[in-house]
Design a protein that fits this description.
Layout: H1 2-5, H2 20-26, E1 34-40, E2 50-51, H3 56-61, E3 77-78, E4 84-85, H4 93-97, E5 101-108, H5 116-125, H6 137-144, E6 154-157, E7 172-174, H7 189-198, H8 204-231, H9 240-253, E8 259-264, H10 279-298, E9 305-311, E10 331-337, E11 344-346, E12 367-368, H11 369-380, H12 385-391
Parallel strand pairs: 1-8, 1-9, 5-11, 5-12, 6-7, 6-8
Antiparallel strand pairs: 2-4, 3-4, 5-10, 9-10
Helix pairs in contact: 6-12, 9-10
Length: 408
């Protein structure tokens, strides 16, 4: 309890490896495949991300915040004749054309909650409607993957371990961006000396404490060296792009980092959401630039990597009286990677007309988010159905229309 109160989370032992790119390039086996999850907290408006411009009801219900059709001023970027991409996400179009970017629309959790807290918990635990689940689905995935004998097999960005990675398997965490080298209570000599004495034994908690201290020191040492070399005397830009650059280079250097997690807030757009400019557009621009930077930073290892972008739920189809949108249901998931069968919008489109909406207000869900994740994990890591059932208990991963999302 004292460790948690001080904000300390054991990191595990980090042993930098500088042959990661070569190792990944030489061995494309599932044991060397990687997964990065980017969680958009606050419920991003998927209807203005992947725009159903071919559905006229979309424009009827969003008179001020709809994204114009392709070909019009500041219009959506056409994807397939029915869907278009928000123009702020133009940096991702090369990936779409290379068929390494796909979307799954009308996707999400079957649980009807409109609570951010509960919906995020269910998406991260992988058990919608069950609050008693003690671990996150990425931690259960970690337990399924071949043991690489390192606590940095999974790394998350931030000061605490998120729900999605919570569980019995050790996970490393580190803050990037401007907070990368920010001091913690345990950096103070008086507190550190007290903890060193308290945890100097051979019990599991003492060993975890010492491994955590060693891991943080090693991670920060590598990160400081990278930042000095990359800066060349100039300050780094703020935001996700900087974190994505740092994280991708960290993963590219060390092939033992197999799972990564990042999250971004600011997607709860009840007021003044905007259309092709404004609040949402600004956030999407930063996200698109960051994802593009992440892909470039991974280099050749992107071929062995799948990146999943997800959010807890979508938003109402109708705009509200404050030129924004409220908590909804169905949304869009993004999947990027060298093995992704991209250039396609997957999923069954339910329509936005009368009688087609969920509770007469939201995009209906036709694809369970666990089917998308199950398809990705099953193909990317060569997992058997029995292994997938341990990651997503009490759910039969029926991949349906997303069965070919990732090439074997």
């Amino acid at each position: 309890a004292l460790i948690a109160a001080l904000g300390f989370v054991p990191l595990g032992t980090y042993r930098p490896g500088f042959t990661g790119l070569a190792a990944l390039a030489e061995d494309n086996s599932p044991a060397n495949h990687r997964l990065i999850v980017v969680f958009l907290r606050g419920a991003v408006d998927g209807l203005n991300v992947v725009v159903p411009y071919g559905d006229s009801t979309y424009y009827n219900l969003r008179p001020t915040i709809a994204i114009p059709q392709p070909g019009r001023n500041l219009g959506a970027i056409d994807l397939d004749g029915h869907f278009g991409l928000h123009p702020a996400l133009a940096p991702l179009i090369p990936l779409w054309k290379e068929r390494s970017l796909a979307f799954v629309h009308a996707c999400g959790s079957p649980d009807p909650t409109r609570s951010h807290f509960d919906a995020q918990d269910f998406m991260e635990s992988g058990t919608p409607g069950m609050k008693s689940t003690s671990s996150g689905w990425m931690n259960r995935l970690l337990a399924t993957l071949p043991n690489k004998h390192t606590s940095t097999q999974a790394v998350c960005m931030g000061e605490t371990i998120p729900r999605i990675l919570s569980g019995p398997r050790a996970v490393a965490n580190i803050s990037l961006g401007k907070d990368a080298a920010r001091t913690m209570p345990l950096d103070r000599p008086f507190i550190k000396n007290a903890f060193d004495q308290l945890y100097d034994g051979q019990d599991s908690l003492s060993r975890a404490y010492r491994e955590g201290i060693s891991a943080r020191k090693s991670l920060l040492h590598d990160l400081d060296a990278e930042m000095v070399a990359a800066n060349n005397g100039a300050p780094l830009p703020d935001g996700f792009m900087m974190e994505a650059s740092q994280f991708s280079k960290m993963m590219a250097k060390d092939s033992r980092i197999q799972l990564g997690f990042m999250d971004l807030g600011g997607w709860d757009t009840h007021v003044n959401q905007g259309s092709t400019s404004g609040q949402l557009s600004s956030h999407l621009h930063q996200l698109g630039q960051g994802l593009s930077t992440l892909v470039k930073g991974l280099g050749p290892s992107f071929e062995n990597t799948v990146i999943v972008v997800m959010s807890e739920f979508g938003r109402t189809v109708r705009e509200n009286g404050n030129a924004g949108t409220d908590h909804g249901h169905g949304n869009v998931m993004w999947v990027l990677g060298g093995s992704v069968a991209g250039g396609k919008v997957y999923g069954q489109w339910p329509g936005l007309g009368e009688g087609q909406l969920y509770q007469n207000r939201d995009l209906a869900i036709t694809t369970d988010f666990r089917s998308v994740l199950g398809s990705v994990l099953g193909h990317h890591f060569a997992l058997e159905p029995e292994q997938l059932s341990r990651i997503f208990p009490q759910f039969s991963v029926n991949q349906g229309s997303v069965s070919q999302l990732v090439r074997v």
